[in-house]
Specification:
alpha/beta, eight-stranded parallel beta sheet, 13 helices, 8 strands, 12% strand
């Protein structure tokens, strides 16, 4: 496989106009921000990008816009997962055609895979749509309802999927995550996906992570990583504890609408959410703003502009 990823990948949000259509005009500035913030790449059209709520043409349009805006400055991983395997395979081919660096797919989430073997069959078919690109299985059982043995997945998929790079591992089972990191002498790239558990993941060997809050708070997480890497565990724990408190506040609200609200507070109008997700109402937005302000959040993330109004 290609060289393993190190650092943070921002699982960013898809900007929409107020009428609900995709707003690609905001993407170049968003990419510039993420370059400045120090992330290594962007995860496009995933859960936080509302990929499952978009049409195929919209997903292609958004992926193209991010690849073009990045211009090689950041790696672009395109999420192609879909409950229709054939559609996911087509999105994989499109990701390769536009010059993405890698692609990923969740398990089908309506008719779900019935076994690890069945899951591997599905992922092998999707991955064959772009055989020249690194492929990551996106393990997120709390959303897909598909929670299988990931060591068994690596064992079987490693034989069946030539371009399997690894797993985007978004689950709290750190013991299995560690086993995946160590499987077959560390053959696969296992990217950790829960921001609030970044420090514990680093402790068991994580080198890279993909997360939504890295879109607006990457410098704070990078301080955690830097402190850990220099052996200053007290500083790493202190920095990470603050981020956990921020996420505790965030989780009082629906996570994706809540994070789009944070982006708006920081001067980035990402537009409404797609149904069935619902944009925060004014009362919730204002309450959320005051809770974050009480934590000193806005001063810490150095926003270009803080907007109190919803």
């Amino acid at each position: 496989m290609s060289k393993k990823i190190e650092g943070l990948i921002a699982a960013t949000f898809t900007p929409f106009h107020e009428d609900g259509t995709v707003n690609t005009s905001l993407i170049p500035a968003l990419v510039d921000k993420l370059v400045k913030d120090g992330v290594r790449g962007i995860f496009v059209c995933g859960s936080n990008g509302e990929g499952p709520n978009m049409t195929l043409e919209e997903r292609k349009l958004v992926a193209e816009a991010f690849v073009k805006a990045a211009g090689g400055r950041l790696m672009i991983i395109v999420h192609v997962g879909h409950s229709c395997i054939a559609e996911a395979k087509m999105l994989a081919a499109h990701a390769a055609a536009i010059g993405a660096d890698a692609f990923a797919a969740v398990a089908a989430f309506y008719f779900k895979p019935s076994s690890v073997e069945n899951l591997v069959d599905c992922m092998a078919d999707i991955a064959s749509g772009a055989p020249g690109l690194p492929f990551y299985y996106y393990h997120i059982p709390h959303l897909t309802g598909v929670g299988m043995d990931m060591i068994e997945f690596l064992r079987l998929a490693g034989r069946r999927i030539p371009n399997l790079a690894g797993i985007k591992y978004t689950a709290t089972t750190l013991q299995e995550y560690q086993s995946c990191l160590n499987y077959s002498q560390g053959r696969f790239d296992i990217l950790y996906g829960l921001d609030e558990l970044l420090l514990p993941a680093l402790a068991v060997g994580a080198k890279a992570a993909i997360g939504s809050t890295y879109t607006f708070a990457a410098p704070l997480y990078l301080r955690t990583m830097e402190a850990f890497q220099r052996g200053d565990l007290e500083a790493a724990r202190e920095q990470h504890a603050y981020l956990v408190e921020v996420i505790r506040v965030l989780l009082k609200y629906p996570p994706i609408p809540g994070q789009k609200a944070i982006m708006h507070m920081l001067g980035w109008d990402m537009g409404p959410c797609r149904l069935p997700l619902a944009t925060l109402d004014k009362e919730s937005y204002d309450e959320f703003y005051h809770e974050l302000a009480a934590l000193g959040f806005f001063e810490k993330v150095s926003p270009r502009k803080v907007q109190h109004t919803s």
